[in-house]
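Shipment paperwork, digital attachment
Item: protein structure file
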Amino acid sequence: MATLTCVPLIFSSSAVPVPSSKSLGHCHKCNCVASSLPLTRKILDCCTLSFHNFISFSSSFSSLSTRTNKGFRRKTVVLASMADLSTVLITGAGGRTGQIVYKILKERSDQFVARGLVRTPESKEKIGGSDDVFVGDIRDASSLVPAMQGIDALIILTSAGARMKPGFDPTKGGRPEFYFEDGAYPEQVDWIGQKNQIDVAKEAGVKQIVLVGSMGGTNLNHPLNNLGNGNILVWKRKAEQYLADSGVPYTIIRAGGLQDRDGGIRQLLVGKDDELLQTETRTIVRPDVAEVCIQALKFEEAKFKAFDLASKPEGVGTPTKDFKALFSLITTRF
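Attachment content:
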């Protein structure tokens, strides 16, 4: 799809000479001129959006200045709504849940400007290779700065992943053994990597951070901690506490067992302190986790909250649609 790069603009009511490509504030890709008037929020100089989305965005106004050889015709339009869109960065955008969040945000371009952060160029290509997808290493704070500049919200979906040791034969009984690759242990990814993300986002002036973790963190003997001797839930919990103490408005979502099924058709359940693990409702589908992440950006009731998330089986209960009411049920800050 063709892309058009533009800045939030204010067209003058009088004819404006078209500046050269070297002029200050001029966007050379679309011959638009940035307003010299102060904006009410911090934004990047330019943002990339699809040509289709730009046309849809422009059509919401009653008139749009058109360019002639002598400048812009005499019509006044303030494209101020661009400044009202929330710029959201999803880290771990190449993962199974991250891809869903990124896709939904791109589809809701009337509300959000989506960005993604992935670990490799291959992961970037896997989700479309758009210019709004950055490549960075969460273990290296400096590599995160370009992606974080100008964002309003950050959704953290990064996590260490254990690998099964080769040679396991299920026909012989026993249990498989797991390991973490060098440099990719939970301490490095789920603690240092998430701490780096929180620090860089805070320095960039982020307004909210949504962090997705896992249920089970209250139990040091949880089986997940034994995978590869990584103590993954311990390090996740440490990052969650760091976020809660950071002073940045946060939403911490501790998801149950993740499933790859369709979302939006189940009643969601929230809990605290792993209470849901003692019930039969201990799982959640990835699309529902993605939707809760996005909805958390829209309601004050989701801020400064930490909660466990699961769902009833499909066909049991009423599918959750009122997310404000769901977040209002949560009373725990950590």
